[in-house]
Structure formats: structure tokens, C-alpha cells
């Protein structure tokens, strides 16, 4: 075009200055269109007689890209309230997963770290896939982690929607958002069919497969993938048209054997993210939770028409340190806010002794379930009959969903499909009731329908309800789904089995389930759910022995771990807090010296996380021996202001403390 004097050097330079190839093409077309029919005819001849990128972009890519943008804007913009998502526009830049993140349940991670990330570096969303400096290169594989309910999928939607509107990363021609829920429905795929199946409007995938167009592939929700990724034994594949097992396809994409030129962004809960070798991850980020002001704003949005109610809910959360910490997670904050608001509304005018102020996890979820159970049955004439009928139907639904939840939990399965519903004899028509829609969310795509619990803890509470009910009549081990096991009779034997499995499980994924199971033995929870899901006062026959068994789990040796702390939290759920109260009182009075037996050390480790006495300063002056200090070491990591004076420590203790201060998880800021 330059040789034909249809495009001057200055005009060509102006076109080159555009940030992306589609915009360069547009600039050239606009310049030639302004020069009359001869220039346009020359361009037409050129694109008809060559196989250049210009031809492809004008005749194929441009309309394809436009259709892709419209499709993403429609899908990702639906229900996205960008005003409430400011928190997601700045991610935390982290160096890798900590030991706590790799090993512990999401809830324990939050409780242990008090909801505060151990980093101050952040990266804005628009720079997530850009080089950090002028001498570095853009990351090829990025991983973003966050606990259940913190907003990973919402973050993906926000990014895609913002990109599709042309506001960020304009150099990227294709953003391809996929979920592992969707990938679960395939057994084998090629890289080519992956793109064509998920995005049928992309009629020419070769531009992506060959790297001609800059592409970002998003894989959302690794923790929901049905098959663990095995990078050590995955077969190498470099042919984009070859169909292979889906897990092998993912490992080859992440390794760069397929879609070498594409950037890859994986989101996951922390424990699942450890499947990806650190050496393959170029950038790791973390979604931060709510700060104190954001919890207030979130509750104000929840109760937009009743600011007094919002204020009362916030006051209740602030008064309970455990709830306050967990409410840094939006998903949990919503459940807690709903439950506390329901309590406040229903307790008006009731005697104080009959209303249960929700303090424990089990009480929060009992109120939530009670609210869900009652939603289908507004007050009408013949109320008694309706309530009986409602209770009967609710028990049936909760029993069916509970079995699904329990065995899903054992299999680390959190997304279910229609074949799963049929396997567990769940009537699909039951899933249309408002009770089900409050507990189980439904995602309908062109090729599949997926169901998942509204939060991981909803699944765990339902699983505990199922186990609690089934354990009273089961004669075989409930953890063996086939029913083939040694006979196991009586609720207490099943309770002990659940606690022991939780203590032995390497992945810690039964910890909250066992906490809920303990909570169902609480008189307060029984009072809330009796007549609906529990039999009135039935816990009286089990509670004392279950408490004795849990206390026995603490009296092993001086090694205090997060499992020990979780056992203490089980005692809190069951409403047996005598040990913790004794140790807390001694801490206040500075009289811990000589008291720290293995059981009291367990209580102390629990209080380091849960007590307001330890919030400003953890004062362990004049009470620690070498053995006690060694046993508490892993729990002292998360004390911000630690006082250890007058303990007559020797050099070997100093070496221990030195090792603590160098650990990645350590949050100690002041040591005296």
C-alpha cells in the first residue's frame, strides 16, 4: 500500500501506534476508506489474493471477536454489582502457599491467622497479567487462591466483564473463561475441542492454538475438579487436535506443552492449589477478606431498608471474637448476618430464657436452617397440621441432601450433577422447593446442569445432620458407604469413629464436620431444631459421654496442634467450656504458673485464637517450661504481641524461638 502511495509513512506509523492488532487493522481500514473507491478496491484485491493476517482479521477474526465480547458481557455482567466489588480490584501478591494454607481446612486457616494476611504487597486487577518491572516478562501461569466464599468466581466474572468492555488488558484478543464444573462433564478432550465446545462462536480456533492471537485461558475452581492433577505421571501431549483425559489436558496446558503462547489463570481454594508445582507458577495472588469497615458496609447492603437491624447484627458480631474473625469471609458474613437478623426478629417479646443468642458455629447454622425450613410455610389456618406436614417434608429433603452432602464430603466432592442426584435417589422435583434453593444452588449450561451447596459449611452442616440422625440406628460404619464393615452399634460408637477419623485425616477436611456433629449435642441447638430436625432433649443421653471422650483426646501428650485446638472448639460447640474458662481466668490473674498440664495447654492454645484476653497482648510471663514452650510453639506463631519475660529460659529455648521467627507463617510483630 505504501508502494502504491495509498498509505504514507506517517499514516502507517499512526496505525502501528495502536495497542492491539485488531485496532491497527481498524486504523488502516479507516485511513483507506477516507481516500475513495480506488483505495478501498486496492485493499479488497489485496485481501482476496493473499493469506495475510489482515485478511483473516477483516473477514474472520473481527466478527468472531465481536461476537465473543458480546457473549462474555452478557454472561459475566448478569447480576454483577460492580460497586460492591472494590475489594476484589486489589489482590495480595504472595510468594507461595504457607504450611497452614496447604494443610488446614479453610475455616481453621481463618481462625488461626485471625483473618489477617501476612503480607502488605498488593497488585491491582488491571496489572494482574503485566510484568512487575521493565526488565521482567508477563507471567504465563498465574494462580489466585482464596478460602470458600471469599469471591474467587466473582473476581473472574468482574475481570472478564471489565475486559470485555475494553477497560483493561486491551492487548489480549481472547479471554476464555472456563470452570472446572464444566470440565467435570467431559472424559476426554483435545485443546481444539475444548475451545470449540465451550465457545461455539469461535469458528477459527487455529489463531488461538497457534498463538497468533494473544489469549488468556481462565480455569476457575480447581478445588471442584473431580480428578486430582498428577504432574509427575501425566502423559506429554503437544498435538492440539489429540483427545486425551481431561486431567492430562489441563496438566499439559499448565506445563506449556499445549497453548504455549496463551497465558493461564487458575483460581482455587488453597489446599487444592498445592497440586500445581511451585516451579510452574509464575505469579501467585490471594484474595483478601473483609476489613472491619467492609463488614459494616456489607451488612448495610444486606439490610438496606433497616439500618437499625444492620447495626444490631454488627454489634453482635463485634462482641464475639470467633464470629468477627470468620466474618472477614463474605460468604460466611452473609450466613451469619442472616442468622443473627432472624434471631433478633424472632426473639422480640420472648422471655430471655427461651431465646438462644447465637454464639457458636452450630447455633449460627441452626438459625439459618430454621429460617430456611420455615420459609415455605407461612402462617395459615390449621397451622398445627401445616407445621407437622412441613416438618415431615423438611426431614425428607434434609435427609436426602444430607446423605449427598456427607458422602460428597468424604469424596472431596462439592459439585453434583443429575446422575449424582439419581444415584442418591433424590427426586429432582424436590429440588424446586424454596428450602432446596436456599441450600443448594443450580447452574444450568447448554450441556449440563450442576448443583452445589451455597457454601462449603452448608454442606458440612447437612452432612453432620445426616450422620447424627443415621448414627442412632446404624449397625455398620457409616464411613463405609457400601455398608460392609464390622458391626458398630450405638450413637456414641459412631461419634467416636467420626472424631477419630477427623484426628487421623491428613487433609483435615472433616474438622468442621466434627465440630458441627458435636454442636448437635448442645442443649441450645436441640432447643432450636427440635420438632423440625431433632427430637426434643434427645442429646441428654449422649452429651456427657461425648464430652468425656473429647476431653480424653486432649490428654495425650504435650504436642499441641491445630487438631488439638479443633477438639477444644468441639467442646465449645457442645457447650462445655469449664477447662477454657479456668485457664482464661488464670491468664487474667497472671497465675498460670504450674497449671499447664497437657489438657490446660490445649485450652491455652485455643484461647490464643479465641479469647479477647489475648487480642492486644499474649502474656505468658513466668509460666512456661521448656516442654510447654515447645508444645505451644506452632500456636505462638500467630500471636502479634507476645510477652515471655520471667520464664528463666535457657539457650535451647532461645533456639526454638529463633526457629519460630524465621517461619513463613510467623505473624509475631513484637516479642518481649
TrEMBL record:
SMART domains: FISNA. The keyword ATP-binding applies. Its main location: cytoplasm. Keywords: ATP-binding, Cytoplasm, Leucine-rich repeat, Nucleotide-binding, Repeat. GO terms for cellular component: cytoplasm. Pfam families: NACHT, NLRC4_HD2, WHD_NOD2. It is found in: Cytoplasm. InterPro entries: DEATH-like_dom_sf, LRR_dom_sf, NACHT-assoc, NACHT_NTPase, NLR, NLRP_HD2, NOD1/2_WH, P-loop_NTPase. GO terms for molecular function: ATP binding. Residues 140-272 form the NACHT domain. It comes from the Eukaryota. This is NLRC3 protein.
Amino acid at each position: 500500500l505504501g508502494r502504491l502511495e495509498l498509505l504514507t509513512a506517517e499514516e502507517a506509523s499512526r496505525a502501528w501506534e495502536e495497542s492491539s492488532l485488531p485496532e491497527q487493522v481498524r486504523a488502516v481500514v479507516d485511513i483507506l476508506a477516507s481516500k475513495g473507491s480506488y483505495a478501498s478496491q486496492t485493499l479488497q484485491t489485496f485481501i482476496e489474493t493473499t493469506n495475510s493476517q489482515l485478511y483473516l482479521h477483516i473477514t474472520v477474526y473481527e466478527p468472531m471477536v465481536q461476537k465473543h465480547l458480546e457473549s462474555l458481557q452478557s454472561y459475566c455482567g448478569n447480576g454483577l454489582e460492580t460497586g460492591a466489588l472494590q475489594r476484589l480490584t486489589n489482590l495480595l501478591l504472595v510468594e507461595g502457599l504457607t504450611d497452614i494454607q496447604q494443610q488446614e481446612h479453610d475455616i481453621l486457616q481463618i481462625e488461626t491467622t485471625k483473618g489477617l494476611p501476612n503480607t502488605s504487597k498488593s497488585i491491582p486487577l488491571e496489572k494482574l497479567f503485566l510484568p512487575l518491572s521493565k526488565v521482567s516478562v508477563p507471567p504465563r501461569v498465574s494462580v489466585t487462591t482464596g478460602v470458600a466464599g471469599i469471591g474467587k468466581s466473582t473476581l473472574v466474572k468482574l475481570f472478564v466483564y471489565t475486559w470485555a468492555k475494553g477497560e483493561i488488558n486491551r492487548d489480549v484478543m481472547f479471554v476464555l473463561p472456563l470452570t472446572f464444573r464444566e470440565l467435570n462433564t467431559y472424559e476426554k478432550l483435545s485443546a481444539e475441542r475444548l475451545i470449540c465446545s465451550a465457545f461455539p462462536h469461535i469458528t477459527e480456533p487455529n489463531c488461538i492454538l497457534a498463538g497468533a492471537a494473544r489469549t488468556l485461558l481462565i480455569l476457575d475452581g480447581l478445588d471442584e475438579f473431580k480428578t486430582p492433577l498428577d504432574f509427575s505421571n501425566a502423559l506429554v501431549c503437544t498435538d492440539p487436535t489429540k483427545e486425551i483425559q481431561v486431567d492430562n489436558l489441563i496438566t499439559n496446558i499448565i506445563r506449556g506443552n499445549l497453548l504455549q503462547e496463551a497465558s493461564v489463570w487458575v483460581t482455587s481454594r488453597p489446599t487444592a492449589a498445592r497440586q500445581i508445582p511451585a516451579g510452574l507458577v509464575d505469579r501467585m495472588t490471594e484474595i483478601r477478606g473483609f476489613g472491619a469497615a467492609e463488614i459494616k458496609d456489607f451488612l448495610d447492603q444486606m439490610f438496606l431498608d433497616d439500618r437499625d437491624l444492620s447495626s444490631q447484627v454488627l454489634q453482635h458480631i463485634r462482641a464475639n471474637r470467633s464470629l468477627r474473625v470468620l466474618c472477614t469471609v463474605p460468604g460466611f458474613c452473609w450466613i451469619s448476618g442472616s442468622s443473627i437478623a432472624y434471631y433478633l426478629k424472632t426473639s422480640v417479646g420472648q422471655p430471655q430464657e427461651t431465646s438462644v443468642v447465637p454464639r457458636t458455629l452450630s447455633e449460627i447454622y441452626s438459625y439459618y436452617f430454621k429460617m430456611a425450613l420455615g420459609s415455605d410455610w407461612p402462617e395459615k389456618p390449621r397451622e398445627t397440621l401445616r407445621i407437622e406436614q412441613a416438618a415431615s417434608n423438611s426431614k425428607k429433603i434434609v435427609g436426602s441432601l444430607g446423605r449427598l452432602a456427607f458422602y460428597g464430603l468424604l469424596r472431596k466432592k462439592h459439585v453434583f450433577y443429575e446422575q449424582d442426584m439419581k444415584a442418591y435417589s433424590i427426586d429432582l422435583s424436590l429440588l424446586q422447593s424454596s428450602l432446596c434453593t436456599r441450600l443448594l444452588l443450580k447452574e444450568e449450561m447448554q450441556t449440563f446442569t450442576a448443583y452445589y451447596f451455597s457454601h462449603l459449611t452448608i454442606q458440612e452442616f447437612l452432612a453432620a445432620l445426616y450422620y447424627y440422625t443415621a448414627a442412632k440406628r446404624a449397625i455398620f460404619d457409616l464411613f463405609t458407604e457400601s455398608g460392609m464393615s464390622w458391626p458398630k452399634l450405638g450413637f456414641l460408637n459412631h461419634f467416636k469413629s467420626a472424631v477419630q477419623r477427623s484426628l487421623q485425616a491428613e487433609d483435615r477436611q472433616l474438622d468442621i464436620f466434627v465440630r458441627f456433629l458435636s454442636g448437635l449435642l448442645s442443649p441450645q441447638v436441640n432447643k432450636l431444631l427440635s420438632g423440625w430436625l431433632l427430637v426434643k432433649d434427645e442429646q441428654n443421653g449422649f452429651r456427657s459421654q461425648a464430652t468425656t471422650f473429647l476431653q480424653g483426646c486432649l490428654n495425650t501428650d504435650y504436642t499441641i496442634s491445630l487438631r488439638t485446638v479443633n477438639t477444644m472448639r468441639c467442646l465449645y460447640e457442645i457447650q462445655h467450656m469449664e477447662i477454657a474458662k479456668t485457664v482464661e481466668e488464670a491468664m487474667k490473674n497472671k497465675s498460670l504458673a504450674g497449671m499447664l498440664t497437657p489438657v490446660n495447654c490445649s485450652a491455652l492454645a485455643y484461647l490464643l485464637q479465641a479469647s479477647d484476653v489475648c487480642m492486644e497482648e499474649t502474656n505468658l510471663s513466668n509460666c512456661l517450661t521448656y516442654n510447654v514452650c515447645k508444645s505451644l510453639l506452632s500456636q505462638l506463631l500467630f500471636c502479634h504481641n507476645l510477652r515471655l519475660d520471667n520464664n528463666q529460659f535457657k539457650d535451647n529455648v532461645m533456639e526454638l524461638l529463633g526457629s519460630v521467627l524465621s517461619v513463613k507463617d510467623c505473624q509475631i510483630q513484637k516479642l518481649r
